[in-house]
Amino acid sequence: MPYPEYFVAPMRQELTRLGVQELRTPDEVDAAVRTTPGALMIVVNSVCGCAAGKARPGIALALQHRPRPDRVATVFAGADTEATDRARSYFTGFAPSSPSVGLLRNGELVFMLERAQIENRTAEQVAAALTAAFDRFCEREAVVPDRL
């Protein structure tokens, strides 16, 4: 049974106030993956303490960095269960965990930050791991002109 909305709403807002888009259905997850050119970051949000003290604050810090993903979205484990399951289906090779962050590039998973990599780090260390992934996978490729 999902958590009541009044319980998770403040935790959702910690990300949505940063411009993170909520994906609340499997169709919304699929559409985000299909229609996002470049890098899409999907955050699996959670009610746990490591989400509150490490993941969400680390994500907030990381999103101040440039480059950053072309689109940032979130699903909420324990609330939007079908959307969460669909998001996790794109995180191939990784067991379900929450919180977690997957970075997809043109629909393919290129980076994963699992709960085990979040719970023993500070928010700043979570941000550092994410920004290193942003630097590696979110830079747009240079356009080479026909003539110089």
Short account of what is shown:
With 148 residues, this protein is an alpha/beta fold.
Structure in words:
- The protein is of the alpha/beta class and 148 residues long.
- The chain has one domain (5-137): Glutaredoxin (3-Layer(aba) Sandwich).
- The chain is built from 6 helices and 5 strands.
- The protein has helices at residues 5-16, 26-35, 49-62, 81-89, 115-118, 123-137, and strands spanning 21-22, 39-45, 71-76, 100-105, 108-113.
- The protein has a 5-stranded mixed β-sheet with strand order 1-3-2-4-5, with helices on both faces.
- Strand 4 and strand 5 form a beta hairpin.
- Helix 2 runs parallel beside helix 4 (81-89).
- The model is unreliable at 142-148 (pLDDT under 50).
Report the biggest beta sheet as strand number plus sense, adding barrel if it closes.
5 strands, mixed
Mean pLDDT, all residues: 93
The CATH superfamily is: Glutaredoxin
Shape: globular
